[in-house]
Write a structure and sequence with these properties.
The chain has a two-stranded antiparallel ribbon with strand order 1-2. It is mainly alpha-helical. It contains six helices and two strands; from the N terminus they run βαβααααα.
């Protein structure tokens, strides 16, 4: 791969869980039908993720337009273009839990450090 290519301006956020586990004992007994989100960050713009990966691999980051995305990314384009932030605020409140560990960008960057 000679470049990393997000779609458009790369502003689509990804909700990320980075090393933040909810221990089973914390969610037992859980409420029937409850949804728990173990995400540390509500949304990290794809462009920021692409920039870190591009810098780490020493390749340029080149944006693809929404029209070009399906030809380049195939079936993955449908997911890359989604704006689906998630929040763990209610999970933290209901379970007394909080995420641990680094954010996505520092965690990705450390993998490229010499």
């Amino acid at each position: 791969c000679d470049r990393f290519e997000p779609i458009g301006a790369g502003g689509f956020p990804f909700a990320m869980e980075r090393g933040s586990w909810i221990p089973a004992a914390t969610v037992l007994p859980w409420r029937t039908g409850a949804r728990y989100h173990a995400v540390a960050e509500e949304g990290v713009p794809l462009r920021e993720i692409a920039d870190v990966i591009g810098q780490g691999l020493n390749v340029p980051v080149v944006a693809k337009s929404p029209e070009e995305a399906p030809d380049h990314f195939g079936w993955l384009a449908a997911f890359i273009g989604l704006d689906c932030p998630a929040s763990s605020a209610q999970t933290q409140e209901r379970l007394g839990w909080s995420p641990k560990g680094p954010g996505l960008i520092p965690d990705l960057a450390r993998h490229f450090e010499a």
